[in-house]
Amino acid sequence: MGHFGRKPIQIAWTGLVLPGLALNYLGQGALLMGDPSAIQNPFYRLFPEAWLIPALVLATLAAIIASQAVISGAYSLTKQ
Q1: Angstrom distance (rounded) from CA 30 to CA 25
Q2: Which of 43, 23, 21 is nearest to 32 (CA)?
Q3: Dihedral of the alpha carbons of 2, 5, 10, 12, in degrees to the nearest 10
Q4: Would you kindly state where each structural domain of the chain is located, as residue ranges?
Q5: Biggest alpha carbon distance in the chain?
Q6: pLDDT tens by residue, 20-61
Q7: How far is the CA of 27 from the CAs of 9, 32, 40, 47, 79, in angstroms?
Q8: DSSP 49
């Protein structure tokens, strides 16, 4: 469970992750109902054209930060 414990992880999941995923999937469904031609890539079609590059940069930075956390965690486990 890492540094936080079970209860804070459950709270974060139900308060942040689950609503975010629900909004994303419901938004994709609404987009596809309104424009069936968006079936090829509905996630990126949700963004306005001007926000696409900043969203890609943000996603790339989030992936880099997450990979660094995985590397640090693996290193900590091997040092124990």
Answers
A1: 9
A2: 43
A3: -60
A4: 1-46, 48-80
A5: 54
A6: 999 999 999 999 999 999 999 898 888 899 999 999 999 999
A7: 25, 9, 15, 11, 44
A8: G
